[in-house]
Amino acid sequence: MQEDVSGEPRGPRTDLCIAVRRGAVPSGYALRASTTAICLLLTLLLFCRVAQDVTAQPPTDHSTAPAIHPVTLRFVSWKPDHPRVWDEALAEFTKTHPHISVVRELAPHSSTAYHDLLTQKLKNRDATVDVFFMDVIWVPEFAEAGWARPLDERFTPAMREEFLPATIEVTRYSDHLYGIPSRIDAGLLYYRSDLLTKYGFSLPATWDELARQAETIVAGERSTNPTLRGYTAQFKQYEGLVCNMLEFIDGHGGSLLTADGTHSTLARPETLAAVQFVRDRVIGGLASRAALTYQEPESLSVFLQGHAVFHRNWPYAWELANNRTRSTVAGQVAVMPLPGFTPGRTAAALGGWLYGISAYSQHPDEAWALIEFLSSQAMQKKFAQEAGIAPSRQALFADPELLTAAPQLRNHFAVLQSATARPRSPVYPAISHLLQRYFSRALAIDDLDLAREAAVTDAHIDRLLALTRIAP
What we know:
Blueprint: E1 2-3, E2 9-10, H1 12-22, H2 35-56, E3 71-78, H3 83-96, E4 100-107, H4 111-123, E5 131-135, H5 139-145, H6 157-160, H7 165-169, E6 172-173, E7 176-177, E8 180-186, E9 188-192, H8 193-198, H9 207-221, E10 229-232, H10 239-251, H11 269-282, H12 296-304, E11 308-313, H13 317-321, E12 333-336, E13 350-357, H14 364-374, H15 377-387, H16 400-405, H17 409-418, H18 428-444, H19 450-467
Parallel strand pairs: 3-4, 3-5, 10-11
Antiparallel strand pairs: 1-2, 5-13, 6-7, 8-13, 9-11, 9-12
């Protein structure tokens, strides 16, 4: 294509058009002064105008991608123990996904209070909720209620193989997967290694042995540390109380429900004996009665300040206990499995959190991008190294760099694999409420008739369980 001096594009057909407009039609195109000629002239002038418009337009780029519109995701979670690590992780996500911004809505640290806040939003079909943390025990409830979006198609079988099998099973309900594993938890026993060494004690093999060691150390340290107690854990009336008591009960050979999950077993002798031990030997003995008000942060604070010999908590506490800017006992802390009531028996409650996508989210694709990023191997490694959070990806338990930075993971793996799950049921929140009330009363009221209270609670739980049975 050429241009003439006027700047107009030149082509075989436009030569004629230009000539017609200038009145200089070549002789080969001579026109007779007739009606036919006038019509032809008008037609040529119209054709020339159209040709000029077409040739003047720039070429269309059919490869241009559709416009990407900014999206804001709302991520509902509890208040994190390591806010800096979370801020960095989300900033990195935004850097790689510049069209997506993430706004976090932080709930109280209590899992019970967080559950109440989140479920209220979901009951209201709140479309502003996109991504949320989901306790492993909430999956049946959220699935039955239609609050969590099934993720089977996005979370492919090949992706699932990279996670610990136990973390995949807790996401499943009625043949669908409703979450992506963020972390796996199991109860662990933290202890003052310097004090056990000072008094010549080996690791306690049973709860009775732990009690004797703690009593000896507390008595020996009373002149220099009068506030020292033998044990600290979570005994407030909330979900953490159920986890703590499950560990004592399981360690004594008891259970919360029958093996088929159809009946409550609180009134069985082995279960009653475990509750009796906690009431008689732990509350007001090994632990202060103030422990009846402790959740994870309060009980951990007692240990970090050097006021307890033994402490029960989740894997995340390792980093805090050995962080010299936050712990007065850093470098003097070790960790082991929780004991049972007979040598060789251990018990740990299975915990953990999943990423879920709200069924009412208007941005499911962007929500998936966020949880795929946060659950990636790189991000789980970051959380494990910098926040002490046990990963759910199998490969990280053999990562040399991570094991150097977080050596406690070497011992955690076996505990995490064998931890005991709480009952899985769509009505678990109601069951948990009854368990919390029973355990709280059992520990706080010294003269409570445990057998009677347990039988009454069993009856209430059995009625709830009956509601979920499929009629023949």
